[in-house]
Amino acid sequence: MRLLYVCNEYPPAPHGGIGTFVRTLGQHLAAMGHSVTVVGLDPGARSPSRESDNGVTVFRFPHRYTWLKAPKIGRYHLSPAFILQRMYLSHTVARIARDCKADLVESYDWSGPLWSKPHVPLVVRFHGANTAHQQYRGLKPSPLLRFLERRNVAMADALVSVSKHIGDVTLRALDITNTSFRVIYNGVDTELFRPMETSNDGAEVLYVGSVSRRKGVLELLRCFPMIAQKVPEAKLTFVGRVPAKGVDRQLLDETLASSPASARQAVTFVGVVPHTHLPSWYARARVAVFPSHAEAFGLTIVEAMACGAAVVVTNKASGPEIVEDGVSGLLAHASDPQ
């Protein structure tokens, strides 16, 4: 098949789980003999570019209309650039889909990246829409983003969700009824993520992911002194992007400051590491902990499990779809440090 993916965060552009997922899937589909193309807007691009990434053809285009001022209404900046960017991306996707004779285009739900449907069948994959995440937090979503996300779901020929949980939450948040989706869990490169012969650190608790409130890191920090009291040699390591400012940074600093000095000194923030280096971190950890309050699909959980790491996972969101409590890991309540 000739497949085209819409992805505005294809690595090495700033990315999260969606970018990692598209790259992993795209490279494996290309290795199977399929033609795979990725099209996206890259905030770091200064001019259009085309490259090959292990068989995947990647088109990157710079953001346009950034000069447009965005008036702030409530908590949101409502700029016409929101719409114009999506029109530009949709036109570009349609053009490249024609040029590469794509059989299928796949996009995602977050922020509703497309304004119009391409001329070939469109699949929209639920990774957790902005509207769904706002519902998690008990906040009112941006009317514009909700409109764009609903529009993308409505134009899809088929819907796929990375978990049953996030599929149900997304449709409920977008107030869409009489619509079905198919669950296809995210995959992991088991040639990269596999058990390794390395010295295990018998006292390291490892967290991998963005360091944010939504990911449950404050609760993890609050429970660590209890661990350190029982296991004095224990240490807590965070691998992932740490906020430099904002509310998340303030709460992180406050939580650390309230911890006993002995526990605080055993906490290390490594920052972002290359994706290919993560297996060695999982292999050396005594236990990997993922206490997220809201997770469409915990890709890092499955990566850790593929490396043979023991895992503790939130019993909320998609956690119970990944881990069977007491069998393949432990489920714990993310809001309860104890």
Helix and strand layout, with pairings?
Elements: E1 2-6, H1 17-31, E2 35-41, E3 49-53, E4 56-61, E5 72-73, E6 76-77, H2 81-99, E7 104-108, E8 122-126, H3 130-136, H4 143-155, E9 158-161, H5 164-173, E10 182-183, E11 204-208, H6 217-230, E12 235-239, H7 247-257, H8 261-264, E13 267-271, H9 278-284, E14 287-290, H10 299-306, E15 311-314, H11 319-322, E16 330-332
Parallel strand pairs: 1-2, 1-7, 2-4, 7-8, 8-9, 9-10, 11-12, 11-14, 12-13, 14-15, 15-16
Antiparallel strand pairs: 3-4, 5-6
Helix pairs in contact: 6-7
Description of the structure:
The protein has 338 residues and is of the alpha/beta class. The chain contains 11 helices and 16 strands. It has helices at 17-31, 81-99, 130-136, 143-155, 164-173, 217-230, 247-257, 261-264, 278-284, 299-306, 319-322; strands at 2-6, 35-41, 49-53, 56-61, 72-73, 76-77, 104-108, 122-126, 158-161, 182-183, 204-208, 235-239, 267-271, 287-290, 311-314, 330-332. The strands form 3 sheets. The protein has an 8-stranded mixed β-sheet, sandwiched between helices. The chain has a 6-stranded parallel β-sheet with strand order 13-12-11-14-15-16, with helices on both faces. Helix 6 packs parallel to helix 7 (247-257). It starts with a strand and ends in a 6-residue tail after the last strand. 40% of the residues are buried.
Q: How far from one another are the termini?
A: 50 Å
Q: Specify the number of helices.
A: 11
Structural class: alpha/beta
Largest sheet: 8 strands, mixed
Provide the low-confidence segments as ranges. Answer: none
Task: Please estimate the helix content.
Answer: 25-40%
**Overall pLDDT:** 91
Using DSSP, what is the number of strands?
Answer: 16
Whole-number radius of gyration?
Answer: 21 Å
